[in-house]
């Protein structure tokens, strides 16, 4: 089909020089695809280099501790990707002798690997004719064919997958899949797309109908939840503090943080000491309490906004499980905590 020929020709002339495009080794393709989910290439590239340097093979990643994996991932967000990455590496290393599945169907059975990632690995590594559909693909196809079906609806997911499959160059699936994603990233961009120099200028229906900026259509998200976090930054005379590892199915599972008191609203320095959760955290001890930031740090996640304040809690002694303040950088923490540690010299506060 003419669409795929034009697209691949554009790709071969315009593609970026990226490390994972110089190999078809499944481990490295898988690693790059997991990292780039919901992440810009510019942000993910340094992490890719760090991971391939620390873990050249899947066996190296499998042997690493979860804390080390999360520490290297720190700042990339969506930490469930890192946890799934580690679990899948262990499964491939221990159960599959380090050999990744060689087809879409079996790749999709791996933890953290969905339709998009399985399609990308299968086409790039094994030349299997399966179409990828990511945000870039949705944008290109919705504009080219002037499709207003919401891309995050069940109907939209099916419609765009079927269309991408129909357009796929069955002889060159790897080039086609990478071409349409690259075209969406560099040319048919979300804002200010390069329509004046577009190779599809004469056939793009959205351009013809003056709807480029209206597509793709996406259903609105639900209401954003507001949460109020109060972190207790303990300091002892021995320069110790307390870190706790988050567990459960909530955000930042596996990462470390200071003891947390979550309140229903922002409370004043006069009100906070009376909070039952705060009294429980200090265990009835006499402490010196200072609010570090009057104005909360706002940390925005996809479905919730966190308003965080840090309270310096000076105490003579801390439990045995406390950690040295000068070792805090060794622990994987949320970006919210990382930024605080860079700004505040805890031991000298």
TrEMBL record:
Entry-linked Pfam families: EndIII_4Fe-2S, HHH, HhH-GPD, NUDIX_4
GO molecular function: purine-specific mismatch base pair DNA N-glycosylase activity
PROSITE patterns: ENDONUCLEASE_III_1
EC number(s) given by UniProt: 3.2.2.31
Record has 4Fe-4S as a keyword: yes
Keyword Iron-sulfur listed: yes
Keywords: 4Fe-4S, DNA damage, DNA repair, Glycosidase, Hydrolase, Iron, Iron-sulfur, Metal-binding
Cofactor: [4Fe-4S] cluster
Chemical reaction(s) catalysed: Hydrolyzes free adenine bases from 7,8-dihydro-8-oxoguanine:adenine mismatched double-stranded DNA, leaving an apurinic site
HhH-GPD domain location: 35-186
Cofactor remark from the record: Binds 1 [4Fe-4S] cluster.
InterPro entries documented for this protein: A/G_AdeGlyc_MutY (IPR005760), DNA_glycosylase (IPR011257), Endonuclease3_FeS-loop_motif (IPR003651), Endouclease-III_FeS-bd_BS (IPR004035), HhH-GPD_domain (IPR003265), HhH_base_excis_C (IPR023170), HhH_motif (IPR000445), MIG/MutY (IPR044298)
Function: Adenine glycosylase active on G-A mispairs. MutY also corrects error-prone DNA synthesis past GO lesions which are due to the oxidatively damaged form of guanine: 7,8-dihydro-8-oxoguanine (8-oxo-dGTP).
NCBIfam families hit by this protein: mutY
Similarity comment text for this entry: Belongs to the Nth/MutY family.
Family annotation (PANTHER family): ADENINE DNA GLYCOSYLASE
Name of the protein described by the UniProt record: Adenine DNA glycosylase
Natural source organism: Salegentibacter chungangensis
Gene: mutY
